[in-house]
């Protein structure tokens, strides 16, 4: 996703199309909570790196939408 987003960067200059991505990692959702229960490696990974809240992901998207400098 990151490479694809970077490849489209020039669209901002040529067509005024902004392309951004939010790479949130693990988000604290029911799906991830179930993965933690069912998959030991997922639990270990999240214990090491943590996860973000849904609100943090939403706020990242809002920032991208509102701030034209984040192109």
UniProtKB/TrEMBL annotation:
Give the superkingdom in one word. Answer: Eukaryota
> Which of UniProt's keywords are assigned here?
Oxidoreductase
Entry's Gene Ontology cellular component terms:
cytoplasm
Gene3D superfamilies from the UniProt entry: NAD(P)-binding Rossmann-like Domain (3.40.50.720)
Q: Which SUPFAM superfamilies match?
A: NAD(P)-binding Rossmann-fold domains
> By its UniProt entry, which InterPro entries does this protein fall under?
NAD(P)-bd_dom_sf
Give the molecular function GO annotations: oxidoreductase activity, acting on the CH-OH group of donors, NAD or NADP as acceptor
Which family does this protein fall into? Belongs to the short-chain dehydrogenases/reductases (SDR) family.
Protein's name according to its UniProt entry: 12412_t:CDS:1
State the species of origin: Racocetra fulgida
């Amino acid at each position: 996703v990151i490479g694809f987003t970077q490849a489209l960067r020039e669209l901002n200059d040529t067509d005024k199309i902004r392309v951004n991505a939010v790479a949130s990692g693990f988000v604290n959702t029911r799906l991830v909570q179930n993965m933690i229960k069912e998959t030991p490696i997922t639990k270990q990974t999240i214990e090491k790196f943590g996860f973000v809240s849904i609100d943090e992901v939403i706020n990242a998207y809002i920032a991208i939408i509102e701030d034209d400098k984040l192109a």
